[in-house]
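Weekend entry, working from home. Most of the wet-lab plans are on hold until the incubator is repaired, so I used the time to fold the two sequences that have been sitting in the queue since the last round of cloning. Logging both here for the record. First:
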Amino acid sequence: MPGPVQYVLFDMDGLMIDSERIYSDVTNSILAPYGKEQTWDIKAGCMGKPERAAALHLLSFFPDIDLDLETYLKERNRLQDLAWPTVPLLPGTRKLVLHLKKHSIPIAIATGSRRRNYELKTRAEGAQPEKREVFEAFEEKVACGDDTQYGMRGKPNPDVFLVAAKELLGRNVGKLVGVDEEGSEYLTKEQLDERAKGLVFEDALPGMQAGKRAGMNVIWVPDPNLLDVEYTGKEKADQTLESLEDFRPEEWGLPPYDELS
């Protein structure tokens, strides 16, 4: 494994909370009257993208149906808003986040989700107390896909992870945006080293790519269906886990879990 980790960045959807199931159920309920279905090959290209980019990707596979972008988004958002407050934490999330918090490891969230949706998913009336506890541990250190003050591009671009590291955690990672996998020549050795101290948790292929393009270590926790999706990108995760429950902090130079955890 690489050198010891000094800060940790989390994706949210499909990694910390079981929201990808809701995305799939809602999308397929909208497509059903047209006799269509979102397969995992299609879904893989949507995951981690900003809302409109993901919707355009989805609809590009169904040019023969009478469903425009705005109509789809309006109905999708209506159905999703009803479900977001009840979306549960995924296994291992609470244990890991609270463990890192207890040991004063800097943590932040870097999500492609819109901020209004982040609030609905994590803190809306009806959200479970344990979910509120987990997201309060981040102390508002959250970068969302529509935070326009940073001019971020969506994943697989590295922007959201660089923003989270620099703006939220104060790390010297160099230029925030516009630096892709070909941009390392514009960074100092100190900045490259600082990026390499970060650990990213992701479930989506574009998110895994974004973390690697940011120069950070990436642990990929994919839905099993993603393992069957053809992937030709050159970025590879540093470690792949079936669940956050399988993470061993000491392998990355982080404090181990207490024996009673």
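Second, folded right after the first finished:
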Amino acid sequence: MKKIIIGATGASGMPILAECLKQIRLEKEYESALIMSQSAVLTLEHETDYKKEEIEQLADEVFTPDQIGAGPASGSYRTHGMLIVPCSMKTAAGICSGYADNLILRAADVTIKEQRPLVLAARETPLSPIHLRNLAELSRMPGVRIIPPMMTFYQRPETIDDMVRHMAARLLEPFGIETEGYRRWKGI
């Protein structure tokens, strides 16, 4: 199985987290390990009708941020990479500076040192010079991709759910997951 660690932090974008977990669940070769911060849980309940337990049921494994000695804290824990969706600017700053004081940050640190894919759904607006500096620094690291959850219209979405599915597909693509209905740009 190809395991993807999914971190969720306190930025806006929880419907995208849910959709990513659902899409991974549909893939026979993949499984997910979820780590949600306390801020993510608060945001989840504010933005969606999901409860924490319902989101956790979409994952194959669940850890808490204070489990700093859990599997994802070690390079010997086999994964296919890590996705942080949404990724707050606090989390991006922690990853950028190597400040690994919880399991989400430590797992990201391990992902970088093992040169596995790390995808950050960086979520903030407007972006300050500090945010931009941290994201630029992270983007120069091998395997790190910054994929902000931005609206796109070339796929002609009819609903918000269409946009959420499209964004989830973009975030999962670096791990080799091709979601059904994902429409790539084919030119004009």
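Plan for Monday: verify the second prediction. The domain at 2-175 is CATH 3.40.50.1950 (Rossmann fold).
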